[in-house]
């Protein structure tokens, strides 16, 4: 489309060592005055309170912040309902006819839903929840594909004060079961099926298997994807049809006035042990962070923008930047059900052209796939509606960054590389698109009001340029309030490494211009295609197989996925290493946890590199798998193990 499509990435990189927001962008930007940073810093509690004031409260708060490290209470005494922020107030302001969702199913079925329609449907679902006996504080587990009904289910739960917990619909029955059991969910809401790359995925079958041993579950509500997409899986007496209980209901449902600190949702994420952590978010602070960051980071103008975040609502990105942030702002957005390469590798660009998307938020792993598929796919489409691009989930490599700017953003769209976590609830480190001159690969600086520091091993602060552990050193409204029923783990995981500071688990460096570069996890957590996986969780799954005596798993650099899980396995006596067994073990993990966690390969070995105290040195395994020079082996009980391991890795590859 543009004159210079033939430029190589190297040329682009040399041309875009920095990117200054174009004048036209700055002229219309929500923020273009850099003093916003100083002002927010000078009174950060007041800054956040000024955002909270933009929500609709039933009762105003008494205190902005009550900080009892590591426990925060934001807007204590205040009362509000999250769904009201996202729906009622837009309708009341006369924007009921604005489109909330342009939905496009993978087969091409499309529908648009206005804010009034969404409010009506959310009320019906909320009334349906009540008819099933769901009350304030009850937990509702949700296992659905990317359809508007998923977003509406979250809003309906929040309307009656039920705590929702979405489980990404790619997780296995075991993973779903574990999450349902941990929170003791009373209700499960699922879809029968969804479309993925032209095939029907049977979600109901997964749910049936998962709820077999979940005595807390009283009912399973099944939403029908429709058409031919209907599961034949056997149903149980607990099953109820969405069309029966969630549709034939009154169109109005009074929202429950929640305390600012009442739980809104639990979202499970992987930690460094085998057991996922139930991250707990509450109402007032979370909504404040979601509202503020969406408006400023994406420069959102709800009356004219069309926004599209390609994440799944099953992850935090979808919670905050599909449901609560954009909807609190009254945005019009695209929701797409399926794969980016179906029916062709230009599906995303076709959607951007069709809906005239202006703000687009995706992940580096997707961008790398687009690069590989070829420049011709975006070039076929008119992408001139785009005015801002976002990236999230993992560090974005500069090559992908400049490709994104040039081939998707026409060389003119600011890119916001946003660092945050399930725990932080909203974006923490990011450019502000009308202010920041960006550098490919750097998430730049903390959002106004947020304080991030780099910490040395000994707990001292890194001053000036240098590297260290990334820590957040002030509480912020959308921070997690704890782990579901596990305060001890909350304190230990996030607050004990550097007392009084939130330890994010990432390493980062600061350059001479005070820009931050998030480098990656420093704990036993890997990032596969922007999704967090625990080495320990995959290892526990491997050792659950009868053939496996011991297992070690590492995240290894991968061209498209960022990192890929690679396993090393010691077999039990009586089992023979074979390519068939490798396939079986890979499939086993996929079935136990979910496809994402399936190791790319598994190497059989008679021994693993261990310290004298018996700790597996995963760092060395990573060196082996990445074909690197092996690091320091002096702490190994038996340094010769590594030679054998390297030989096996090459031989079995
Ligand atoms: C981890 C959080 C936040 C939503 C998606 C993932 C990595 C996330 C970036 C970025 C470098 C990033 C970090 C972080 N990460 N965004 N822009 N640059 N790294 O949420 O599953 O909670 O994972 O993702 O390692 O700790 P999550």
List the helices and strands and how they pair.
Elements: H1 9-15, H2 23-28, H3 35-42, H4 44-52, E1 63-68, E2 71-76, E3 79-80, H5 82-95, E4 99-104, E5 110-114, H6 115-131, E6 139-143, H7 148-160, E7 163-166, H8 173-183, E8 187-191, E9 193-196, E10 199-202, H9 203-211, E11 219-223, E12 239-241, H10 242-245, E13 258-259, E14 263-269, E15 277-282, H11 284-297, E16 306-309, H12 316-328, E17 332-336, H13 347-355, E18 359-362, H14 364-373, H15 376-379, E19 388-392, H16 398-408, E20 415-418, E21 452-455, E22 466-472, E23 482-483, H17 487-495, E24 502-510, E25 516-521, E26 525-528, E27 531-534, H18 535-543, E28 548-558, E29 562-571, H19 579-592, E30 601-604, H20 618-625, H21 641-652
Parallel strand pairs: 4-17, 6-7, 6-8, 8-11, 11-12, 16-17, 16-18, 18-19, 19-20, 29-30
Antiparallel strand pairs: 1-2, 3-13, 4-5, 9-10, 14-15, 15-23, 21-22, 22-24, 24-25, 26-27, 28-29
Describe this structure in words.
The chain has 653 residues and is of the alpha/beta class. Among the domains are: 109-256, 3-Layer(aba) Sandwich (Rossmann fold); 529-652, ANL, C-terminal domain (GMP Synthetase, Chain A, domain 3), CATH 3.30.300. The protein has 21 helices and 30 strands. The strands form nine sheets. It has a seven-stranded mixed beta sheet with strand order 5-4-17-16-18-19-20, sandwiched between helices. The protein has a five-stranded parallel beta sheet with strand order 7-6-8-11-12, sandwiched between helices. The longest helix has 17 residues, at 115-131. The mean pLDDT is 94. The structure holds 5'-O-[(S)-butoxy(hydroxy)phosphoryl]adenosine. The site of 5'-O-[(S)-butoxy(hydroxy)phosphoryl]adenosine (WT7) has 23 residues, from α12, β20, β24 and β25.
């Amino acid at each position: 489309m543009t004159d210079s499509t033939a430029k190589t990435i190297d040329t682009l990189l040399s041309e875009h060592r920095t990117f200054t927001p174009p004048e036209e962008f700055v002229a219309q930007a929500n923020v273009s005055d850099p003093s916003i940073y100083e002002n927010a810093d000078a009174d950060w509690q007041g800054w956040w309170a000024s955002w909270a004031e933009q929500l609709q409260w039933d009762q105003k708060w008494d205190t902005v912040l009550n900080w009892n490290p590591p426990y925060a209470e934001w807007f204590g005494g205040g009362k509000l309902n999250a769904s009201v922020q996202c729906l009622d107030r837009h309708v009341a302001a006369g924007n009921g006819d604005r489109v909330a969702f342009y939905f496009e199913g993978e087969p091409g079925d499309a529908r648009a839903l206005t804010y009034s329609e969404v409010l009506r449907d959310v009320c019906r679902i909320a009334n349906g929840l009540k008819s099933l006996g769901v009350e304030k504080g009850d937990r509702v587990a949700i296992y659905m594909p990317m359809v508007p009904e998923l977003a509406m289910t979250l809003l309906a739960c929040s309307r009656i004060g039920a705590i929702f917990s979405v489980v990404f619909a790619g997780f296995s029955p075991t993973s779903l079961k574990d999450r349902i059991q941990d929170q003791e969910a009373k209700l499960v809401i699922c879809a029968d099926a969804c479309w993925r790359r032209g095939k029907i995925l049977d979600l109901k079958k997964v749910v049936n298997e998962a709820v077999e041993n979940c005595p807390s579950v009283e009912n399973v509500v099944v939403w029908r994807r429709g058409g031919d997409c209907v599961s034949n899986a056997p149903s149980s007496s607990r099953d109820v049809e969405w069309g029966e209980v969630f549709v034939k209901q009154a169109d109005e449902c009074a929202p429950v006035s929640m305390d600012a600190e009442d739980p809104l949702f639990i979202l499970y994420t992987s930690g460094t042990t085998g057991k996922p952590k139930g991250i707990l978010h509450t109402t007032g602070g979370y909504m404040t962070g979601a509202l503020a960051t969406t408006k400023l980071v994406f420069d959102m103008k709800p009356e004219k923008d069309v926004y599209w975040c390609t994440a799944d609502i099953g992850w935090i990105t979808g919670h905050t930047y599909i449901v609560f942030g954009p909807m609190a702002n009254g945005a019009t957005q695209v929701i797409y059900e399926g794969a980016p390469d179906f029916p062709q590798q230009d599906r995303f660009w076709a959607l951007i052209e069709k809906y005239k998307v202006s703000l687009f938020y995706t992940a580096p792993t997707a961008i790398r796939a687009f690069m590989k598929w070829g420049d011709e796919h975006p070039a076929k489409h008119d992408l001139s509606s785009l005015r801002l691009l976002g990236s999230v989930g993992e560090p974005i490599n500069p090559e992908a960054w400049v490709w994104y700017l040039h081939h998707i953003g026409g060389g003119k769209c600011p890119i916001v590389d946003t660092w945050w976590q399930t725990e932080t609830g909203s974006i923490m480190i990011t450019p502000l698109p009308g202010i920041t001159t960006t550098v490919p690969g750097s998430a730049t600086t903390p959002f106004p009001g947020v304080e991030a520091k780099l910490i040395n091993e000994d707990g001292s602060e890194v001053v000036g340029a240098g590297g260290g552990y990334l820590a957040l050193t002030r509480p912020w409204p959308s921070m997690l309030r704890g782990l579901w029923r596990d305060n001890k783990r909350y304190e230990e995981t996030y607050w004990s490494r550097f007392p009084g500071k939130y330890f994010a688990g990432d390493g980062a460096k600061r350059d001479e211009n005070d820009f931050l570069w998030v480098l990656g996890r420093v704990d036993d957590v890997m990032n596969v295609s922007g999704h967090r996986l625990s080495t320990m969780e995959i290892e526990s799954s491997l050792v659950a197989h009868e053939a496996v005596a011991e297992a070690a798993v590492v995240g290894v650099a991968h061209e498209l996925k960022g990192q890929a899980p690679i396993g090393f396995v010691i077999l039990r006596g009586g089992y023979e290493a074979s390519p068939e067994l490798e396939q079986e073990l890979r499939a086993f993990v996929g079935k136990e946890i979910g496809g994402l966690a399936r190791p790319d390969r598994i190497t059989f070995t008679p021994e693993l590199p261990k310290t004298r105290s018996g700790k597996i040195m995963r760092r060395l395994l990573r060196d082996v798998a990445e074909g690197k020079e092996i690091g320091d082996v002096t702490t190994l009980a038996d340094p010769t193990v590594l030679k054998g391991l390297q030989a096996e890795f090459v031989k079995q590859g």
